[in-house]
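Hi R.,

Here's the input for the 2-(butylsulfanyl)adenosine complex you asked about:
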Amino acid sequence: MTDSNNVETEIERLREAINHHNYLYHTLDTPEISDVEFDRLFQALKQLEADHPELITPESPTQRVGFAPLDAFTQVQHEMPMLSLDNAFGEEDMRDFDRRVRSRLGDDKEIVYVCEPKIDGVAVSLLYEGGRLVRGATRGDGTTGEDITANVRTIEAIPLTLRGKGYPERLEVRGEIYFPRSGFSRMNEEAEAAGQKVFANPRNAAAGTLRQLDSRETAKRPLTMFCYSIGLVEGGEMPDTQKAILDQLATWGLRTNPLTEMRTGVEDCIDFYHQLLEQRPSLDYEIDGVVFKVNAIADQETLGFLTRTPRWAIAHKFPAEEGVTILRDVEFQVGRTGAITPVARLEPVKVGGVTISNATLHNMDEVGRLGLVIGDTVVIQRAGDVIPKVVGVVEDQRPASFRRISLPEACPACGSEILQAEGEVIARCTGGLQCSAQRKESIRHFASRLALDIEGLGDKLVNQLVDHGLIESPADLFHLTEEQLVGLERMAPKSANNLLKALAKSRQTTLPRFIYALGIQEVGESTARNLARHFGDMAPLRSATLDELQAVPDVGPVVAEKIATFFHQENNNRVIDDLIASGVTWEVISNDAASDALAGQTWVLTGTLTSLNRNEAKTRLQALGAKVAGSVSSKTSFVVAGDAAGSKLTRAQELGVPVLSEEALLELLESHDG
Ligand code: IVH
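And here is the predicted structure with 2-(butylsulfanyl)adenosine in place:
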């Protein structure tokens, strides 16, 4: 394609196709092409734009990756205030609301209401000018919010340009941005595995993600949005009912909630409430009630507003997913880094259809804040998929005899002293790897998939190995013999052999995996990789000063301190030396090699990659100096063919371009990691 007009047409065609498929996927929930095919379109567009950067526009679907961090958010004055809703807590409140509406409208007829799920996320306003998204803002106090445009632009469900025609010149769309439950659990599991902070519930996660100053971080999270109303409208007309407005928004590509229904009369609205309450557990988003809105805009105008709430709408709240039960005991669990977590043992109780007998109490500050004693009647809450928590105490039901809760002085697993550092909320067992609980957790971590990936070394086996005194540290794993193993429960000679083979295989690892496997506080997989790249080998990392550590991307003073402390502990050094002596090896990363090993090469990725996603594969290839292209030509150096690779693979074969499997790609990437 030499003619620049052709390139422009092709870019336009690809953008339209991508926007169309995004609309089918996000707004209508009826995708017509596979993720792989979508990715192909996307990569093709990216490649053309990379070759013709002058043709990139801010509205291009490729421009959702986020930008460099902001220093702070600027404030936004809402041109029309963002109001809140009055609440109904029961059916009688609903009937009262309906009576007020009818008497004000002077109508004997039943009112038509639009019934919408009340999404438990973050309220935002989107401003479109000439069909282009020009601003995204939080609700704030209703009058002044924060400009979160850069973050909002990364959310795929939010169109950067409206589809079709007929939209007003200036249109403000309002709705709720939320974190899907599934994505939330996944994110928390990953954060937990990396020893990072977890979010309490999907709403906090959505709010936290939207308040990220670095929109590239927001882009990594699966936020999405439901639109439920409009604000400012200039230079155009909108339909005259709430339902028609929602339908109109959907035709312009804005995502609206599919469970929305029109109901006539308050009794049918109450039925809708019960219907939705039943559906609630099966939804991939959290809802905390139903919003009922008078459908006719003319009626809404007649009804008007109170100070902060409209008279034409009400939120009928669902009962919180809460339960009340008795606190039978508090036990203290010991985590990988020695963190002591009080766990409530409860009289089993059903909350939201799930029986709960344990709940986390987080830390002793929380126990103090709740003023909790054993024997108390407590209120527990389930939020998303996270572990239930104790949120309150019913004080007047405290029994005459109760037990106070105090932090044990000695670790329940190893008897070492428990200390709480000045200014920290977390108390820790000081036993380090002497502590069987910490030992078990750190061995589990060491063997986990992203660490040394030792196949067949499950939780139960780790417990047995530690409890039988066969291993004390990860290094001891490599001294295990077949004889020792077959002596264990449910361990046939064949499985023992398999485990020994897996252990032998895992000795040959990579530096990032090894660093991650050590389980240093705050060092997750990506920090481990950065450390490996920066230092190239263990020796310089072990002796690095705080300043040197802070020169590594993503390592700030807190993380640097944790790393330095880890390498100052004799015990940790002994384990590392022992691991090296037991034959654990990796390739040293030479600094020059790391950045230009693949310089001058053009790679094409096609098909579905299973163990790393395409973006990750791409970034890692680029980090080695390769260019990653969207289409195969005679200039392509290598094609990586994942599952169900199609035309690009055929093309590569026709042109005689070497084709690599995903495994081969992984091997190559790892060999350059160290
Ligand atoms: S309408 C004037 N519809 O609930 C009407 N709000 O308590 C303004 N919310 O701040 C809101 N789902 O964040 C409306 N379908 C829905 C909603 C909804 C969730 C939130 C919104 C608002 C709060 C009001």
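One thing worth noting: The mean pLDDT is 89.

Cheers,
M.
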